[in-house]
Amino acid sequence: MARVSAQERRESVVRAAIAEFALKGYYGTSTEAIAKRVGVTQPYLFRLFPGKKAIFVAALVRSMEDTRLAFERAADGAEGGEQTRRAMTDAYARLISARPETLLMQMQGYAVVAAAETEGDDQTGELVRAGWMRLWETVHLSLGADVHETTSFLACGMLGNTLTAIGLSSDHREARA
User: Fold this and answer.
1) Whole-model pTM?
2) What is the rounded end-to-end Cα distance, in angstroms, of the chain?
């Protein structure tokens, strides 16, 4: 068997953490579950990351970056506002269809910010806000730096995220089976 580098193992931990945190949230996820999913021991997990919060933050940052990259790739080569908007919408739909944990991880992250800040932890919120601003900037530039278009695109996306997370279709008139 080939030896796995620490960086490859870190990547495996981040992906496993996204899956675990997405479904169970920060407080409902144990580092034991993450280690088990990856196939490592908890002590090894803590050689890669200093603690559970660091794993959560790495998972959250990765899920936001995956989304940003999906938008960026979709916009590359698109010609004009409506074509770009449609390409980014379609790319995001494919991303959350193939990897719904990406969306759920981000939703968990948004929820954790408020809880963390009431406990005096501003770092998580700063990271989430920085990730959000990178998403904004990618969408904003892709849509021709039009604030109204950017706001509309992201607002519709957040509505779609919420409806998807609670099990309603994007037009919210019919419940999902």
Assistant:
1) 0.87
2) 43
